[in-house]
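Quick one: examine the sequence and fold tokens given here and explain what the tokens say about the fold. Here goes:
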Amino acid sequence: MPDQRTYESQQHCPVARTLDVVGDRWIILILRDLSWGRQRFSSLLTSLKGISANRLAERLKRLEEHGMVERVFYSEHPPRAEYRLTTKGRAFVPVLAAMQRYGDEWEPRERGVPSEANEPA
């Protein structure tokens, strides 16, 4: 399966073009963690239970290629890097916040148990 989906017939649509970049659950969660201040590969790997190191590396590279993340080296020997959101990546944070609000209201932790936002005042 190719790493990037392309919605060839939908390229007139900004939503489809955005999905070409971020339309992967790991990408969204990586951006979430970076926005929360996790910057090191090992921290991301620990936080993102279930992602393989190879997949995380691939997704970070993809985000770099699209200008949403930059890699900054903090050690030369051995080479070690941190990942940071670029201006373009930080511009996506309000989308993540909207997703969080939606999830809090409409997808409570336990199915069938309403969130506080759904409870009558």
